[in-house]
């Protein structure tokens, strides 16, 4: 999930870290609030460009998510606008509600299934996971026990 720029509370120093979030990512979920047009605008004008700039994995799966559909009476961004942006960004589209949990599970399930459909992502992911597990085992490896026999 991506933060809106103002969520860093004006601490632009975090901007240097954002590029590392995208490097090697297999999946990215871009989220906007359907009740706040500025989140949709920021996503299309800032965050989507940032993903394109910093994502090192050309086969990365992207999902555009409109959140807060439980507040339909306050909607400022239509479903059609979301679908059009998703098409423009060449990514999947889904609307959900974190409060009611509507489609939240489906969002992550769709992302994982799409990642699994891309053999190179699965292969790279397997290698990375295996390396990470091996490194963790080496760090946790208990010291060799000294065997001694007292009779």
List the helices and strands and how they pair.
Layout: H1 15-22, E1 27-33, H2 37-54, E2 61-67, H3 79-89, E3 92-95, H4 104-116, H5 119-140
Parallel strand pairs: 1-2, 2-3
What strand order characterises the main sheet?
A: 1-2-3
CATH homology superfamily: P-loop containing nucleotide triphosphate hydrolases
Largest sheet features = 3 strands, parallel
Distance between the termini: 62 Å
Number of helices: 5
Number of strands: 3
What can you see in these coordinates?
With 151 residues, the protein is of the alpha/beta class. It has a single domain, classed as Rossmann fold, CATH 3.40.50. 48% of the residues lie in helices and 12% in strands. The protein contains 5 helices and 3 strands, in the order H-E-H-E-H-E-H-H. It has a 3-stranded parallel sheet, sandwiched between helices. Strand 2, helix 3 and strand 3 form a beta-alpha-beta unit. The longest helix has 22 residues, at 119-140. The chain starts with 14 loop residues before the first helix and ends in an 11-residue tail after the last helix. Mean pLDDT is 80; it is low at 1-11.
Keywords:
globular; Ras-related protein RABC2a-like; alpha/beta; Small_GTPase; 3 strands; 151 residues; 3-stranded parallel sheet; GTP binding; 12% strand; GTP-binding; GTPase activity
């Amino acid at each position: 999930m991506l933060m809106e720029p103002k969520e860093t509370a004006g601490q632009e120093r975090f901007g240097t870290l954002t590029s590392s979030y995208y490097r090697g990512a297999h999946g990215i979920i871009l989220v906007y609030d359907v009740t706040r047009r500025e989140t949709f605008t920021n996503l299309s004008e800032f965050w989507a460009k940032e993903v394109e700039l910093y994502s090192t994995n050309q086969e990365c799966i992207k999902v555009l998510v409109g959140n807060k559909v439980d507040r339909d009476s306050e909607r400022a961004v239509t479903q059609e606008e979301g679908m059009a942006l998703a098409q423009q960004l060449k990514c999947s589209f889904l609307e959900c509600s974190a409060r009611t949990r509507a489609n939240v599970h489906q969002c992550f399930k769709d992302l994982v299934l799409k990642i699994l459909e891309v053999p190179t992502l699965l292969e790279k992911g397997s290698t990375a996971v295996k390396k990470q597990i091996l490194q963790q085992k080496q760090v946790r490896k208990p010291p060799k026990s000294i065997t001694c026999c007292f009779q």
